[in-house]
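Dear Dr. L.,

I hope this message finds you well. Following up on our conversation about the binding site, I have prepared a predicted three-dimensional model of the protein together with tryptophan. For your records, I am including the exact sequence and ligand specification that went into the calculation, followed by the structure tokens. Please feel free to forward this to your student if that is useful.
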Amino acid sequence: MDESKKVIFSGIQPSGDLTLGNYLGALKNWVKLQEEYDCYFCVVDLHAITVKQTPANLRKKTLEMLAIYIGAGIDPEKNTLFIQSHVSAHSELSWLLTCNTYMGELGRMTQYKDKSQKLGDSIGSGLFNYPVLMAADILLYNANLVPVGKDQKQHLELCRDIANRFNNTYSDTFIIPDPYIPSTGAKIMNLQDPSKKMSKSDENPNTYILIMDPPEVIRKKISRAVTDTLGKINYSDDQPGIKNLINILCSIKGITPEDVVTNYADKGYAEFKKDVAESIIDELAPLQEKINNLLSNKSYLEEIYKNGAIKANYVANKTLRKVQKKIGLIPR
Ligand code: TRP
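The resulting structure of the complex is given below.
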């Protein structure tokens, strides 16, 4: 490990299928980070169980997520790829930080407020404490940077507050992480309502494309994507549906919106959509093949996550011991 490299930590929950938006907006860009940074990519299974999971499905999704990371091009040799529950320091630090976090702080988290409104009294306390576990994830590895979407920014802010408070109370211990805002990475919108982000939690599957969607499903979803009645391919906020499809095409092909507008100057929406669908299919086909191959090679995946856990445990336990000592727990 190169000590001079900055550390990046990120995690994805193994709780569902990833969308084209997750892929183009996040995962695909992480691949570019691996040369420049010391990256930890974690499958956060302990976060997933803050809502009810069926055991067999959780196991399946956890391995799938690992295969997706690798299939997307994240090199298990260059990065630390691991499963959160394989490093017990996450749970342990989470408790120590819980004792240094206020109810008020957690109660102000908008994600918690949204969920508690939906779930009422049956909301699990894991959802309340969720951001503390996330802070533990990040702080254990002395992460300098955390790539997060807008929805996780408040959680990262809280992580910084918790870390700063700990440092002030017990002397300098944690690195204060910054959000990593990638220079590339398009925000892919909902295909039926382009004012919203593409999300797998939408109840209408026509609003999103999953990275494992087969070609005919992709063609159907793109052909049904909302456009407008102007009939001209412009890159404009007045045509948000078309704009989103242009962004998808640009992100896949590495071209600019101007290129697309020029290329399709005298073409119709049907032809444009057909090309967008085919470009998505061409982009996802090799990824799907790699993921499926990895999933049929369980012993390889096992080797990856076991090695990842060894590397991660080493770093995480060092931080945990330091914290335990500072708090006044007797060293073992
Ligand atoms: N909470 C994040 C999400 O739902 C996932 C996550 C868990 C995470 N731990 C993290 C992201 C640490 C970044 C860093 O998207």
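In brief: The radius of gyration is 21 Å.

With kind regards,
A. P.
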